[in-house]
Amino acid sequence: MSNLPGAARERNEKNNRGEMKVEGQSTRAVHAGERRFKSYHALVDPIFQTSAFTFETMSEVVEYQESQGQGQPIDRFEYGRYGNPTIAAAEARLAALENAESVIQVASGMAAITIPLLYLLPAGSHLIMTDDCYRRTRQFCETYLKNFNIACTVVPLGDFAALEAAVRPETYALLSETPSNPYLRILDLERFAEIGRRHDAITIIDSTLATPINTCPLDWGIDLVVHSATKYLGGHNDLVAGFIAGKTVLIKPIRNLNGILGSVSDPNTAYLLLRGMKTLALRVEHQNKTAQAVAEFLAAHPAVEQVYYPGLSTHPGYEIACRQMKGFGGLLSFKLRGDVQACYRFIDALQVFFISASLGGAESLAIHVATHAYYDLSPEERLEVGIPDNLIRLAIGIEDAQDLIADLDQALKLV
Ligand SMILES: *Cc1c(COP(=O)(O)O)cnc(C)c1O
């Protein structure tokens, strides 16, 4: 920033990251995290595509090292694996949106889940997680954590009696998602946070499907929020990244561990996230409305057996969702009245929806859940984990509702 004139530098000090006092989520999404005045007075934050940073003198090196101990670290960087200004801007933007003290951007949503667990869970400890969660998360907890002598109990999402009963003295963390995937179950965050506090266990919520536009779990007392930024935060199906948000006392050691494990994100991805997040509120509010219209259309269609969407009053999580969410999100699932072949015919006939397993981007996507995400299981094993052969998941993009409904309508005729 040394090429900025003095007045701009002074104003920057007043408008530094995190000090901006704006209330609206869309204003935060556009402005938070970036300095008001940038090099050469560029309007948009540059991509700092550099692996290392220089010091002008040895006294600056000493000042930097001193700042790493106690107190407030000075705003400069040393090496790409430990931080980068473009990444710091994206982190500060999400921190403003999630009302978080600190945020770290990591290589993927899975890194955002595995790294906090590796930090929080020593050998001999115990984790409780809820079912209907991201499949790779469950695989990590049930197989890889076991190798470190870390036990894991899975309880049904929303069954708080089962959750309490599963708590042991060595339970260090509680992990859940809301809305969940693929059934869009809704977790009562206040109750979950209270149980965590009472038993001295850190509560972690994968809030990928909600986004901070619909729910801010930290406001409900949750300790750590994790995101697959690959989905709504990026919003354009063109990047893979993750975020972890929470209090600095938790994020700082997680950042240190990530610097050792090396699952870091890169400045180009941070730039795409800064750009994507600017339209987060616009996109999510539109997706909320469109998904609601699609859910209502499907619920009334004779070829559809059941729709899973928290914005339908028939959904078991509807009341909690009304209390805890500003919108019901852009993902929904439904059971078709028909067999696997009928599901395949329906999906093959879609002309606007793509067949693809992600969610949260501009393009609407459809999958046959059993084939796309559970192909390695037998039909019996799939039923055991609650995945029937007629379950279809739709990720609503930002297209017009009438076109998506017309597309579904013509494809349903072939069922
Ligand atoms: C996609 C997803 C993940 C994994 O994120 P990646 O960015 O693909 O690593 C985790 N949780 C949820 C809810 C997801 O949708």
Tally of alpha and pi helices: 17
Main β sheet profile: 7 strands, mixed
Which whole number gives the mean pLDDT? 93
- Derived from helix and strand composition plus strand pairing, the structural class reads alpha/beta
In total, how many beta strands? 12
Report how far apart the termini are.
61 Å
Q: Care to describe what's here?
A:
The chain has 415 residues and is α/β, with parallel strands linked by helices. Among the domains are: 103-246, Aspartate Aminotransferase, domain 2, CATH 3.40.640; 280-412, Alpha-Beta Complex (Aspartate Aminotransferase, domain 1). It has 17 helices and 12 strands. The strands form 2 sheets. The chain has a 7-stranded mixed β-sheet with strand order 1-7-6-5-4-2-3, sandwiched between helices. A 5-stranded mixed β-sheet has the order 8-9-12-11-10. Helix 2 (25-31) packs antiparallel against helix 11 and helix 4 (85-98) packs parallel to helix 11 (267-278). The longest helix has 20 residues, at 280-299. The chain is globular and about 75 Å long. It starts with 5 loop residues before the first helix and ends with a helix. The model is unreliable at 1-5 (pLDDT under 50). The structure holds pyridoxal-5'-phosphate.
